[in-house]
Amino acid sequence: VGSIDKEIAGQAAANFEKEDVQIETPLLVSIKGDLPQRVTAAGRQLKNKIVLVVALKGGLTLLSPFMNFFKDAQTKVGFVNVQRSADADQASICYVDLPTIDPSDDIIVLESVLASGGTASRTIEAIKRAGGCEDKITLVTLICAEAGVRKLEKDLPKVKIVTAHVDKNLD
Questions:
Q1: Phi, psi of 30 (to 5 degrees)
Q2: Pairing mode, if any, of strands 75-84 and 106-110?
Q3: Under a CB-based contact definition with an 8 Å cutoff, are residues 117 and 139 in contact?
Q4: Phi, psi of 147 (to 5 degrees)
Q5: How far apart are CA 80 and CA 111, in angstroms?
């Protein structure tokens, strides 16, 4: 995955709700002979829990970088495996292991390649059945075909897509 992992993770989190926080720094300041006081600084953090859902097997390559990026967030991980048939339009779910999903959770689906959109659509359907809200789901891919993007935009219009590259004719 290399250096693009942090950029893609940052883009995925860009639309997530954030909240203001006060951060206590390790600095001490003494003013006019008073006892030293800790210096605080204003900051922002993600408001909701993060659920990373790996679309097996392709999404496994993205799991470690995303776990590192969101290491300070309350992060849960789940897995969905979709079996594709010889007909590229047919895909069926054969394994689901998802954590408890709250409607406020921000969900990131990790899939390295979005081709026809069948695997991603079925994975997102499983997440929705488990309590995930479509408008809280972001699909992250390294590369995707225009056809897959069009399918997701049609079938799941509230899902956000973050990718490094869109290919006109992904083979």
A1: -115, 125
A2: unpaired
A3: no
A4: -60, -40
A5: 11
Mean pLDDT of the chain: 89
The candidate with the shortest Cα–Cα distance to 139, out of 119, 120, 116, is 120
Helix (H) or strand (E) holding 40, with range, is strand 37-46
- pLDDT digit string, tens, across residues 147-168: 999 999 999 999 999 999 998 8
* CA distance linking residue 75 with residue 97, whole number of Å: 15
Q: b vs e for 12-29, b when ≥16 Cβ sit within 10 Å of the residue's Cβ?
A: bbeeeeeeeeeeeeeeee
Burial of 8 (0-12, 13-18, 19+ CB in 10 A): buried
Q: Among 65, 127, 136, 81, which Cα is nearest to 105's? A: 136
Report the SS3 class of residue 89: coil
**In contact, 70 and 98? CB cutoff 8 Å:** no
What is the phi/psi pair of residue 69, to 5°?
-65, -40
Q: Which amino acid, one-letter code, is at 17?
A: E
pTM of the model: 0.86
- Please report, for residues 29, 82, 97, the alpha-carbon distance to residue 94 in angstroms, rounded to integers and kept in the order given: 59, 6, 10
